[in-house]
Each structure stands twice: as C-alpha cells, then as structure tokens.
C-alpha cells in the first residue's frame, strides 16, 4: 500500500478507529488489537477506548497466524462465547458486525462466515469451542483455513446484501474502489 494501512482515512477517521467503532457498535464487548509494524504510531488510536485492549506481536513478520495466536494469548481466563476475527484492512460497518453476531448466536454453529454473491468473506466468527484449535494454527497449515476445512459441517454461511464483506484493502486500487462503494 505504501503507507500504514491502519491510518488510512475511512469515513472521516482512520481505518483503525473506524474498525474499533464498528466492532463496538456491532456488539463486540471486548476488542483485542494485535499490533506489530510501527505499533507506536497506532497506540494513540487505541489507548483509552473502552473495551479495547492491545498486545504486541513481535513475530508479525512470520505471518498472520502469529497475530491471531498473540490475540488469543491475551484472552487469559476471560474466554468469550464467540470469537470474531477481522483484519484492519477489511473495513466493515457496525450493522454488518452486529448482524453476523446475531446470526451466530441465534443458530449456534461452530463457524459463521458471511458471503456476498456466493463468495465467502469476513469477518469470520468462531465458537469458543474452537479456541484451542485456533491456538495451534500456523502458516504451514494455512492458518484458520485449516480449522474451517475441518469443520465444514458446522459452518453457517450468511448471505449478505452488502459487498463490504469481500473488501480487502491490499492495494491502492482496492482502497479507492472500496472508498467509492462505501460512500
């Protein structure tokens, strides 16, 4: 992207601030932000926000799975009923987050995956029963994909009316396209 994704502007605020507000507004009561590259620049976006904790992943260069495991390590004894995973470069609205959490709670699946036009998206919601499997993920086993593959029979696929569940801002072009769709 050429710049720190978390600080990109999104709907009048940084992408990170937007995500924190969307998660909170969608009903997530405990948000754990996993930081790595240039984390000092992101702390002002996080510190002092109710329900938001952060942890540092010194191994972030080894892949996303190290960040997921670092976040899980932060849970301690306070295990949630469900775990929602969302990358900072996947902006979602509070409405989308809330709808997925309600669908997950109402149906009780092991995994809830949003979809748009039949294509799976994010955020993915995992039942707490899968935390130990998530703690064992690695880049070699393709991370959460392996957990999803093992539990195909326990997946609730929720078809959404918004394409935002497919947004993933890895290039300037994807960022501009998503900005156009979000406006």
Number of helices: 7
Oligomer: single chain
- The SS-based structural class is alpha/beta
Give the strand tally: 9
Main β-sheet description: 5 strands, mixed
N-to-C span: 21 Å
Rg over CA atoms, rounded to whole Å, is 16 Å
What is the element string, with H for helices and E for strands?
EEHEHEHEHEEEHHEH
Average pLDDT rating = 93
**Broad shape:** globular
Low-confidence stretches: none
Strand content: 15-25%
Helix content: 25-40%
Report a brief summary of the structure.
This protein is 35% helix and 19% strand. With 183 residues, the protein is of the alpha/beta class.
Describe this structure as you would to a colleague.
The chain is globular. It has helices at residues 15-25, 43-46, 64-75, 94-107, 131-135, 144-150, 172-182, and strands at 9-10, 13-14, 31-35, 52-56, 82-85, 111-116, 119-120, 124-127, 155-159. The protein has seven helices and nine strands. It has 183 residues and is an alpha/beta fold. Helix 1 (15-25) runs parallel beside helix 4 (94-107). Helices cover 35% and strands 19% of the residues.
């Amino acid at each position: 992207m050429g710049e720190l994704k978390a600080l990109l502007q999104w709907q009048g605020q940084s992408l990170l601030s937007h995500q924190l507000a969307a998660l909170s507004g969608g009903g997530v009561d405990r948000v754990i932000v996993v930081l790595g590259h240039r984390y000092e620049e992101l702390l002002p976006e996080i510190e002092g926000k109710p329900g938001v904790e952060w942890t540092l992943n010194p191994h972030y260069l080894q892949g996303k799975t190290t960040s997921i495991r670092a976040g899980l390590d932060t849970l301690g004894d306070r295990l949630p009923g469900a775990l929602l995973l969302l990358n900072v470069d996947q902006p979602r609205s509070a409405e989308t987050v809330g709808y997925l959490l309600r669908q997950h709670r109402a149906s009780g699946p092991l995994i809830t995956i949003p979809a748009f036009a039949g294509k799976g998206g994010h955020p993915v919601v995992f039942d707490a029963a899968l935390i130990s499997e998530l703690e064992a993920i690695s880049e070699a086993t393709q991370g959460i994909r392996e957990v999803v593959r093992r539990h195909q029979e326990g997946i609730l696929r929720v078809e959404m009316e918004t394409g935002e569940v497919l947004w993933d801002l890895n290039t300037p072009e994807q960022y501009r396209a998503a900005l156009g769709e979000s406006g």
